[in-house]
């Protein structure tokens, strides 16, 4: 959106700067979309693992600072599921700041069975920069704009289906060159598949926790046995970091391996990877908000003024 200043008030799916968020939303609505906030209801998506108290602040920001007439708050996991027409399943999100595995049943998130991984797109971009600096110390890659690194990542990187085998066999590195402009270029070799690997092996970044496939399995394992097969039948991928070539195949293989390893061999998770999954939460939100049956689910400014922020938790939790 032209003229809208960039701000990053959210880290790993959690708001860390409310003042910056208010300024960003106001610029997006007024300067970007050119709408009057007082005239439009707003649907806000939030992270499945965001602190519940954050919804109080969101309501305060929307009703008191921006004076919107009504609002609704929904988990990105639920909206991602809705983008496929489902209201029950397992949402696997890998975006810019955080990854989540969230079971959803009948439109409600299973919070105690939700798992998160603080390795996602932004982390992978920084990791790619580090890999390239180590491989090409003669190039001034530290000064390369973040946007250029992101383009490199999106255009050149992929998920290996045999990481150790590919890593130790130079014949399987498939090098490519990427033009940086002004007559310079950078050559990527094993960096192409090493970049997204921390989503599957966080230990590559010094993190002790399990990778995303193990977290997805844990989420399935933690739901009641009577629902497990049904939720496993709709494992919806969402977020830009799921778009790496090979991501869906690798996740499917490792998730099935987790099921066999832990005695759930009869469980057959079915992954749903739509072409537009990078913006699945937005798509799901736009679909849900357009339904006639949804119109009674808004909290109005009058309701907020009468009941306060407690209403947010009663209606949306």
Annotation keywords:
single chain, 317 residues, alpha/beta, Nucleotidyltransferase, domain 5, Actin, Chain A, domain 4, 3 domains, 3-stranded mixed beta sheet, 13 helices, 40% helix, Actin, ATPase_NBD, Actin-like protein 10
Descriptive report:
This protein folds into three domains: 10-76 and 282-316, Nucleotidyltransferase, domain 5 (2-Layer Sandwich); 80-119 and 210-279, ATPase, nucleotide binding domain (Nucleotidyltransferase, domain 5, 2-Layer Sandwich); 121-199, Actin, Chain A, domain 4 (Alpha-Beta Complex), CATH 3.90.640.10. A hairpin with a 2-residue loop joins strand 1 (10-11) and strand 2 (14-15). The protein is an alpha/beta fold. Strands 5, 6, 7, 8, 11 and 12 form a six-stranded mixed β-sheet that branches. A three-stranded mixed β-sheet has the order 3-4-13, sandwiched between helices. Strands 1-2 form a two-stranded antiparallel sheet. The chain has helices at 18-32, 53-65, 76-82, 121-135, 146-156, 163-167, 191-194, 212-222, 225-232, 247-261, 280-289, 301-307, 310-316; strands spanning 10-11, 14-15, 42-46, 70-75, 89-94, 99-105, 108-109, 115-117, 176-181, 184-188, 235-238, 271-272, 299-300. Belongs to the actin family.
Helix percentage range: 40-55%
Under the CATH scheme, the architecture of the largest domain is 2-Layer Sandwich
Number of strands: 13
CATH class of the largest domain: Alpha Beta
CATH topology of the largest domain: Nucleotidyltransferase, domain 5
What's the number of domains?
A: 3
Q: Specify the CATH homologous superfamily of the largest domain.
A: ATPase, nucleotide binding domain
CA(first)-CA(last) distance: 32 Å
Which class do the helix and strand fractions yield? alpha/beta
Question: What global shape is seen?
Answer: globular
What's the overall average pLDDT, rounded?
A: 92
> What's the oligomerization state?
single chain
Q: Which sequence of SSEs, written as H and E, runs from N to C?
A: EEHEHEHEEEEHHHEEHHHEHEHEHH
What is the number of helices?
13
Family: Belongs to the actin family.
InterPro entries: Actin (IPR004000), ATPase_NBD (IPR043129)
Pfam family, one: Actin
Protein name: Actin-like protein 10
